[in-house]
């Protein structure tokens, strides 16, 4: 049976095609080279030939960024109240969430906590694309805001790695409300002269791109990530113009001033540590 297209509000076609496939050997979707999976894993899930960045879950991302064993998770068991009692195509929201929980071991689409990055204390938030496409609902918003509060309270840098299909339509307007809620939390952090480094990975779209992901004091993107609010088809239908090639990639956004730098995943940890020191926030 053909896989159902994943539903999004923003009009992106987000298939799970870029996740690391299982097996000893894998094929790079970009350069088509056959790769030894273990070697790719050692290379931070980046292709050894063409530097294609595979999509990674929150657990893997945390293991790549945080000093070994330093991550202490906040609010790990916070779960949605399913405010709309939502169902779609014969499946309830609760059932879909339970499936992803079982498949991925993730309770929600974001993990937050405190950690060290190369010896610097940080508050870290990492979105999880393996859980309901990293979509933002009430729990993502709440965990994000609590993490921002922790960063303010302890005067620590706040680092967030986004990877999301946008607002979670299963929660209706409550998911959209999280855009304002997370943005307000970041405004308070800004007033308190806190540091927010936002890392955008593939994909950062919809309500997440239109709220906290683009509010970093420094915005870093991974190479060739899809970053944008609405999908090309939706934009074309709305404003009726042809869109330039590659207009929603990291490279295009860097050229047009929407992101500050593109950093290869293998350099990300060092670059974040360097920025923390540059802003005088290393403790
Ligand atoms: Zn490749």
From TrEMBL:
Molecular functions (GO terms): acetyl-CoA carboxylase activity; ATP binding; carboxyl- or carbamoyltransferase activity; zinc ion binding
Cofactor(s) this protein cannot do without: Zn(2+)
Reactions catalysed according to its record: N(6)-carboxybiotinyl-L-lysyl-[protein] + acetyl-CoA = N(6)-biotinyl-L-lysyl-[protein] + malonyl-CoA
InterPro entries, sorted: AcCoA_carboxyl_beta (IPR034733), Acetyl_CoA_COase_Trfase_b_su (IPR000438), ClpP/crotonase-like_dom_sf (IPR029045), COA_CT_N (IPR011762), Znf-ACC (IPR041010)
Domain CoA carboxyltransferase N-terminal as annotated: residue spans: 24-283
Cellular compartment(s): Cytoplasm
Domain of life: Bacteria
A Gene Ontology cellular-component term: acetyl-CoA carboxylase complex
Residues that, per the record, bind Zn(2+): 28, 31, 47, 50
Zinc finger (C4-type): 28-50
Major localization class: cytoplasm
Keywords for this protein: ATP-binding, Cytoplasm, Fatty acid biosynthesis, Fatty acid metabolism, Ligase, Lipid biosynthesis, Lipid metabolism, Metal-binding, Nucleotide-binding, Transferase, Zinc, Zinc-finger
EC number assigned by the record: 2.1.3.15
Cofactor annotation comment: Binds 1 zinc ion per subunit.
Subunit and partners: Acetyl-CoA carboxylase is a heterohexamer composed of biotin carboxyl carrier protein (AccB), biotin carboxylase (AccC) and two subunits each of ACCase subunit alpha (AccA) and ACCase subunit beta (AccD).
HAMAP family, A to Z: AcetylCoA_CT_beta (MF_01395)
Protein name according to UniProt: Acetyl-coenzyme A carboxylase carboxyl transferase subunit beta
Species this protein is from: Limihaloglobus sulfuriphilus
